[in-house]
Design goal:
The mean pLDDT is 93. The chain starts with a strand and ends with a helix. It is 30% helix and 35% strand. By secondary structure, the chain is α/β, with parallel strands linked by helices. Helix 4 links the parallel strand 8 and strand 9. The longest helix is centred in the N-terminal third of the chain and has 20 residues. It has one domain: Rossmann fold. Strands 1, 4, 5, 6, 7, 8, 9 and 10 form an eight-stranded mixed β-sheet that branches. A two-stranded antiparallel sheet has the order 2-3. Strands 11-12 form a two-stranded antiparallel ribbon. 35% of the residues are buried.
Length: 215
């Protein structure tokens, strides 16, 4: 299942527009904060799909029966660009376990590149709901490789993929290579990828815009 939040009019579109805007992007702190706010909204939307159980809560005047999340999800991000989005998710799923994956593009002189996984820190994922986030879903290669690396720590019950901007090609690649129990949540889906696998119109390099350029 694919949820494209740009198809519905909401405040989410304001944050998407600011992420894309070359003038607003000059404010690095605002860029990170917008990623964080998008993570919060996406966390709220995902929370509606989770399993709940009724809990008795003691108030100063009596007992209130309130449905609460039965089992917390595991929040997983791909370093480094995913950190602000991850914080937004964690602001709402504040009791969740967390996992981190380091994936990067290793570029070659001919302009091609391959994605390498260098680092993984994760709890047991067996039969758990996981939320795997990366701001940009371009080719989908990083997400799929990250997911496969995570399988060494158990097979999840359900996988939620969270991104701010996706490409059509990236979404199709994820659909082909991740299991049927996967849900994709996108802020927007763009039609084009450049020869260097950047999304168009996209927003540029999310990691550089959030944290500064790298060598």
């Amino acid at each position: 299942m694919i949820h494209n939040l740009s198809k519905t009019n909401s405040i989410f579109n304001q944050f998407t527009s600011e992420l894309r805007n070359i003038h607003v992007q000059k404010d690095r702190m605002r860029f990170r904060r917008n990623l964080e706010r998008m993570g919060e909204i996406l966390a709220y939307e995902i929370s509606k799909t989770l399993e709940y159980e009724t809990n008795e809560i003691t108030t100063p005047l009596g007992i209130a029966n309130i449905p609460l999340i039965a089992t917390q999800p595991v929040l997983i991000t791909i370093l480094r660009a995913g950190l602000p989005l991850h914080i937004g998710l964690l602001n709402y799923f504040d009791m969740a376990e967390n996992a981190f994956v380091s994936a990067y593009r290793k570029h070659h002189k001919d302009g091609s590149f391959e994605v390498e996984i260098e680092y993984l820190s994760s709890p047991d994922l067996t039969d758990k709901v996981v939320i795997l986030n990366d701001p940009m879903l371009a080719t989908g290669t990083s997400l799929v490789l990250a997911y496969k690396a995570l399988l060494t720590n158990g097979i999840p019950k359900h996988v939620h993929i969270v991104c701010c901007i996706a490409s059509v090609q990236g979404v199709e690649y994820v659909k082909r290579n991740l299991p049927h129990n996967t849900t994709i949540w996108c802020g927007a889906i763009d039609d084009e990828l450049t020869a260097q696998s950047y999304i168009v119109p996209g927003l540029g390099d999310a990691g550089d815009l959030a944290f500064g350029t790298k060598l």
